[in-house]
Amino acid sequence: MENTIKVERAILNLTQEDLAQKIGVSRQTINSIEANRYVPSTVLALKLSGIFKKPVNAFFKLSSND
């Protein structure tokens, strides 16, 4: 899975820590998602969708390996 979380976060001028606090996770979790080391749960993806005001598939994409 690929994502554009870092870009979406930058558009809103949020640090990893800011975003983490808004959705109730650690900064390390945000870092792992951005680095494609962690695939978030549906609940977490929906929380991100609410922050970014975009559908989940606007910032998460399946890769050819998925």
UniProtKB/TrEMBL annotation:
It comes from the Bacteria. CDD domains: HTH_XRE. Residues 5-59 form the HTH cro/C1-type domain. It holds the Pfam family HTH_3. Keywords: DNA-binding. The keyword DNA-binding applies. The keyword Nucleotidyltransferase does not apply. SMART domains: HTH_XRE. PANTHER family: DNA-BIDING PHAGE PROTEIN, TRACRIPTIONAL REGULATORY PROTEIN-RELATED-RELATED. This is Helix-turn-helix transcriptional regulator. It comes from Bizionia hallyeonensis. The lineage of its organism: Bacteria, Pseudomonadati, Bacteroidota, Flavobacteriia, Flavobacteriales.
